[in-house]
Design brief:
InterPro entries (chain A): EmrE-like (IPR037185), Small_drug/metabolite_transptr (IPR000390), Small_multidrug_res (IPR045324)
Shape of chain B: flat
Order of helices and strands of chain B: HHHH
Shape of chain A: flat
Largest sheet of chain A: none
Largest interface: A-B, 47 and 51 residues
Distance between the termini of chain B: 29 Å
Pfam families (chain A): Multi_Drug_Res (PF00893)
Oligomer: heterodimer
Organism (chain A): Comamonas endophytica
Number of strands of chain A: 0
Number of strands of chain B: 0
Strand content of chain B: under 5%
Structural class of chain A: mainly alpha
Helix content of chain B: over 70%
Number of helices of chain A: 4
Subunit structure (chain A): Forms a complex with MdtJ.
Distance between the termini of chain A: 8 Å
Radius of gyration of chain B: 16 Å
Strand content of chain A: under 5%
Radius of gyration of chain A: 15 Å
Membrane topology (chain A): Multi-pass membrane protein
C-alpha cells in the first residue's frame, strides 16, 4: 500500500461507519414502505462514498473497496444482533471469521 | 423465477462498478461534475438493488452485488490504476469473498 497515512484510514473508518448506519436505516425503511428511513439510508450511502473517495487518495482502490465491504458486513451483522436481535448461525460465524482473516491478509500485503 | 429482477441486480452491479471507478478519478482530481456523477451512479445502484430485492432473497442479492463488485473493482484497480495484485492480496480477497457469501447464505439463525 503506497503512501497510506493515518488520515486515509480515518476516512476509511468513517466510510465504514456511515455504511453501517445506511444499512440499518434501509432495514428500517422495510423495502421503501417507510420513505424517510430510505432517504436517510441513501444519504448515508452517499456520505460514505464521499469519505471513501478521500480514503482512496492513499489506499489502493481494490484494497479499500474490499476493506469497506468486508468490515461493513461484519459491523452490520453486529448491528443486526444489537438492534434487531438477529442471531447468527454457525455458517455465518464461519463467514465472519473468513472475512476477518481476509482483511488481515489484505492489510499485510 | 423470472429474468427481470436479475437484470435489475446486474444493472445495480454495473452502476456500482462505474460509481466506484469514478470515485477513484474524483480522488485524483476533485471535479464537481464527476462527484455528482458518482452520487448519481451510487444512488441508482442502491435503487436498483432495492428493486431487485423485491423478488430475489435479500441474502442472495447482497452476496451477488458485493462479490461481483469486489472482483470487478480489484480487476479495474489492477488494469487501469496500476495497482499490484500479489498472491497474498488475491488470497485475502478470495477469503473475504467466501466470507461474504457465507454470512449472507444462511448467516442468520432461524427466528424462534
Amino acid at each position: 500500500m503506497q503512501n497510506a497515512q493515518f488520515i486515509h484510514y480515518a476516512f476509511m473508518g468513517l466510510a465504514v461507519l456511515l455504511e453501517v448506519a445506511a444499512n440499518v436505516f434501509i432495514k428500517c425503511s422495510a423495502g421503501w414502505r417507510r420513505k424517510v428511513w430510505g432517504v436517510l439510508g441513501i444519504g448515508c450511502v452517499l456520505a460514505s462514498f464521499t469519505a471513501l473517495s478521500q480514503a482512496v487518495k492513499g489506499i489502493d482502490l481494490s484494497v479499500a473497496y474490499a476493506l469497506w465491504g468486508g468490515t461493513g458486513i461484519v459491523l452490520t451483522t453486529a448491528a443486526g444482533r444489537l438492534f434487531f436481535q438477529q442471531a447468527l448461525a454457525r455458517r455465518g460465524w464461519a463467514g465472519i471469521a473468513l472475512i476477518v482473516l481476509g482483511v488481515l491478509l489484505l492489510k499485510l500485503s | 423465477m423470472t429474468l427481470r429482477p436479475w437484470i435489475f441486480l446486474l444493472a445495480a452491479v454495473a452502476t456500482e462498478i462505474v460509481g466506484v471507478s469514478v470515485m477513484k478519478l474524483v480522488s485524483q482530481e476533485t471535479a464537481w461534475t464527476a462527484l455528482l456523477f458518482m452520487y448519481l451512479m451510487i444512488g441508482l445502484s442502491f435503487f436498483l438493488l432495492a428493486t431487485a430485492m423485491e423478488h430475489i432473497p435479500m441474502a442472495v442479492t447482497y452476496a451477488t452485488w458485493e462479490t461481483l463488485g469486489l472482483a470487478a473493482v480489484a480487476f479495474i484497480g489492477w488494469q487501469f490504476f496500476g495497482e499490484s495484485l500479489g498472491a497474498l492480496k488475491l488470497l485475502g480477497m478470495a477469503l473475504l469473498m467466501a466470507g461474504v457469501v457465507l454470512v449472507n447464505a444462511g448467516g442468520h439463525a432461524a427466528k424462534e
